């Protein structure tokens, strides 16, 4: 999906805290200059962060770095409201001379450039969701104190509590044009046509680049080959369908663009560690 540029505006506060109650998460893939901490309280679907796609469910908790493309998309079969708490704040907060202590959080900001998922069930996850609830219900000064508190907890969390998502930061350059980048057009086209046979030559035409140069272009932009990204996206769509439907595995594989069941099984197990039936049983 194309990563549109979002302008986050909160001139009279250090942070913006949102409580989103929607019929569905369906925002287009977008990026913004701010860091963002998103906690999905209700909802299920597909999460896209940079070059990473994966199913999400209630409890999903992710810290996004500046200019990292992202979106959460509710599964069409979801019933009920989608609910999330979102905090957005400017990375310049950590560079203020009047608050030198905040410079200690710079390593966390750097790590967030790939997106960090707080592992469900970890002690860190419980601490952060509790802190988010406090921030959401507090006055402005207490919100600021709460933000610093929860960022400190994230910064000191064990390495295995924070899972990097994207293989590359995918941050837009500072001089980026408001027009969609070529790579965003390719990703938009790819996700819209997952079920179809997709060739690198066709993607090269979308990017207006020669087929000979396309493979280098794609790997430079997304940190992986066109084939690896395509299989990642197809397996993610299949994983979501396995969680949300009772369709036969062979039908899901076909609908997600895999020509043969054997190829689907190899690719799916490589990414999830189990075959499709095992994944469905564990998710049930």
Automatic annotation (TrEMBL):
<keyword id="KW-0238">DNA-binding</keyword>
<keyword id="KW-0805">Transcription regulation</keyword>
<keyword id="KW-0804">Transcription</keyword>
<dbReference type="InterPro" id="IPR011051">
    <property type="entry name" value="RmlC_Cupin_sf"/>
</dbReference>
<dbReference type="Pfam" id="PF07883">
    <property type="entry name" value="Cupin_2"/>
</dbReference>
<dbReference type="InterPro" id="IPR014710">
    <property type="entry name" value="RmlC-like_jellyroll"/>
</dbReference>
<dbReference type="InterPro" id="IPR009057">
    <property type="entry name" value="Homeodomain-like_sf"/>
</dbReference>
<dbReference type="Pfam" id="PF12833">
    <property type="entry name" value="HTH_18"/>
</dbReference>
<dbReference type="InterPro" id="IPR013096">
    <property type="entry name" value="Cupin_2"/>
</dbReference>
<protein>
    <submittedName>
        <fullName>Helix-turn-helix domain-containing protein</fullName>
    </submittedName>
</protein>
<feature type="domain" description="HTH araC/xylS-type">
    <location>
        <begin position="184"/>
        <end position="282"/>
    </location>
</feature>
<dbReference type="InterPro" id="IPR018060">
    <property type="entry name" value="HTH_AraC"/>
</dbReference>
